[in-house]
Amino acid sequence: MIKIAPSILAADLLNLGRDVLRAEAAGCDWIHVDVMDAHFVPNLAYTPETVRSLKKAVSVPLDVHLMMDRPETLLDAFLEAGADIVTIHAEIDSDIAQLVKRIRGAGALAGIALRPGTPLGAVRPYMDSVDLILAMTVEPGFGGQKLDERVIAKIRAIRDTGYQGEIEADGGIREDNLGMLAENGLTVAVMGTALFRCTDMPETVARLHRLQAGSSRKRDGV
Length: 222
Hints:
The chain is an alpha/beta fold. The protein is 31% helix and 20% strand. The chain has one domain (3-209): Aldolase class I (TIM Barrel, Alpha-Beta Barrel). It starts with a strand and ends in a 13-residue tail after the last helix.
């Protein structure tokens, strides 16, 4: 079953608590939190206090995506705030292996993300140590973009390496293209506008859950 992770970037910030509770009640599996530092991506969003507040509101895992040049500066703060999954980027100039070790040592799942133009080789050294690979299907920074279908081949290539962890995608995912992603090995879909602006979220999530992740194997954990 495909996991559905609504992105709070698309929620109503004046009613964030209401919207995440609505997503949880609709059957969503994770809550996705995009953290942006205005350096790695041209936008600014969310802090450890956001995660801390969300942790008090929902019981589903918090999927925290650190779009930061130097995630090590706030990594412990996000972990202490309650992040259940923490994803860092392959493109950063940091000791990625050490960061992954810190994340998993804190009891969270560790992920590594790729921009659309970053080759798969950038994550190969870490495939045995991460629980999740996030293939960005848009250039990160802003919601509401169109899915870059070229990334589908990258998702297929990740699965074809024999990688057995979660494969997540973020950007432009809608009900009419999720099936194609699932067939190529996707197991976690980050969705924003397509969920928060749909007319019947429980029914939409139920339909999405009926999609089967092709060539994937369930991994223990979250």
